[in-house]
Amino acid sequence: MSKVDVDIGADSISSSDEILIPSALADATLAFMEENDTAVAQITPEQEKKLKKKLFLTIFCFVSAINLLLYMDKATLSYDSILGFFEDTGLTQDTYNTVNTLFYVGFAIGQFPGQYLAQKLPLGKFLAGILATWTVLVFLLCTAYNFSGVVALRFFLGMTESVVIPILITTMGMFFNASERAAAQPFFFAACMGSPIPTGFIAYGVLHITNPSVALWRIFTIIIAGLTFIMTIVVFLWFPNNPADAKFFTVEERVWIIRRVQASTGSSIEQKVFKKSQFKEAMNDYITWLFGLFFLLQQLANNLPYQQNLLFEGMGGVDALGSTLVSVAGAGFAVVCALIASLTLMRWKNISALTAIFWTLPALVGSIAAAALPWDNKIGILANICMAGQIFGIPFIIALSWASSSASGYTKKLTRSSVCLFAMGIANIISPQIWRAKDAPRYLPAWIVQIVLSFSLAPLILLLIHFILKRRNNERLKNYDENFQGYVNKYQLVESDTSSSNEKGVTVAHESNLAVFDLTDLENKTFIYPL
C-alpha cells in the first residue's frame, strides 16, 4: 500500500497501489457530514422543492444583491461624469480612460493573491473584509480633487473588488447543483446588467437637487458608499463560509444541500489547502487558456457601458437627465433578456455555448448598426448603443460560470477563475484606450475592434470548448461504471494531518462518495463535463 500522498496529482491514478488521502486534504464539509449524515433521511421530492425555494430566496438573493452593489460602484464614475465630476477633478476624456485602465490594473494584480486568500481564509469573513475596504475607498472618492487622487483610489478599488465575483460564483457552486447553477447564472448577472436601473434613478434624483451646498457627484457617491456600508454589516453577520455553517438553514437542510451538490458535480464543495498539483494541472490544461482567450477578446468591449453616457452627450440632443433615463431603459431590456436566457438554460441542458453565442448576436448587430447608421439618425444609433452595451454581459457570465463548473478540484477551479479574470483585467486595461478622444464622436476604431474580436471571434472559442469537452464526455461514458468502481477501490481517507507518512493507529476508511477526495477532472475519469 502506498504512503499518504499529500499533493495528489493526475499521475497517481495510474498507480496499482491504493492511494491514501489525509482527511485534511478532503472536502472541508467532511467533519460536518461524518457527524450528521447518518442521522438525516433522504430528501423527499416535496422537501427538495421547499429547499430549492429557500436556496433562491436566501443564497441567491444574497449574492445577487452584492453583485448589484459591485456594479453600481463600478459605474459610479460614469454617472459622476454627468454630475460635474470632470470639472471638479480636471479630468478629460483621455484621463478618464486612464482612470478606468488603472482600475483594471489593480483588478488584474489582485487576482492570484486574492483567490489564494479566498481559499485559505473563511470565505464569508474574507468577503466582509473586502466589503469594508471597498466602502472606505468609495467614501474617500468624495475627497478627490485631482487626477492623481482619482487614479490611486480607483487602482486600489480594482484590487479590492477583484475577487468578489469569484467568491460569489464559488458560493453559488457550494449551494446549488450543476443544472440549477447553470440556469441561475443569467439571473445572477441580471443584477449587474440591471445596476443602471437603481443607479440611474439615484442619479436622476440627485440631478433634481437645487442649489446644493455639496457637489452633486459627491452626494451621489456618498449614497452609493452608504449602501455598500449597510451590505458590509449584513455580510459580516450572515454570509456563510460554506453550507456546513449557513445560519439560515437547519442541520438537516445543510446535509441535503451538501448531498445534492456533491452528487451533481462529483466535486468537493470547499478545500482549505492550496494544492500545488492542482495549480499546475490548471495551468497545463489548455481548456483553461481557451477560456482565458475568450475573456481577453470578449472583454475588450467592456468599456462600452462606461462610455455610454459620454457617447450620448457627444451625439447632441441628449442631456444628463435624458442619458440616465436611456441607461435605465437599456438596463431594463438587458434584464428581460437575462431572464429569457435563464429560462432557456433551465429548460434545455448542455447548451451553454449555444446560448452564449445566441446572446452575442444582439451586441454584434447593435455594434454594426451603431457604427454604420447615418449620423443624423440619432434615435437609431441611440437604440443600438443601448443594445450593444448591455446584452453582451449574458455570454460573459455564462462563460465565467462554465469555466468554473467544467473544472473539478477546488484549487484548480480557483486557479482557472484567476486566469479568466486576469485575462478580463488585461482586456479592460486595453479597452478604455481604444476610445480615443480624436475618434469622437463616432469612435469607429473602437466599434471595429469590438465587432471583430469581441462579438465574432470570442463566441467561436466557446464553440470550440464545447466540442472538446463533448468528446471527453463521450470517451468517459463508454467505461463509466468500470472507472467509478476503480476509483472507489483505489482512494481511501486517512484520519490524519497532511504528514507524508501513514502513522500507526490512524483510521483508514473507504468512501463511495468520490466528491470528498477533491479530485480534479483529469484525475477523476468519472467527472462528466457540463456543456
From TrEMBL:
Q: Which residues cross the membrane?
A: 55-72, 126-147, 153-175, 187-209, 215-239, 321-341, 353-375, 381-402, 414-435, 447-469
This protein's record includes keyword DNA-binding:
no
Q: Where in the cell is it found?
A: Membrane
Q: Which domain of life is it from?
A: Eukaryota
Where mainly located? Answer: membrane
Pfam families registered for this protein in UniProt: MFS_1
What UniProt keywords apply to this chain's record, in alphabetical order?
Answer: Membrane, Transmembrane, Transmembrane helix, Transport
Provide the membrane topology annotation.
Answer: Multi-pass membrane protein
Recorded protein name is High affinity cysteine transporter
Question: To which species is this protein native?
Answer: Saccharomyces uvarum (Yeast)
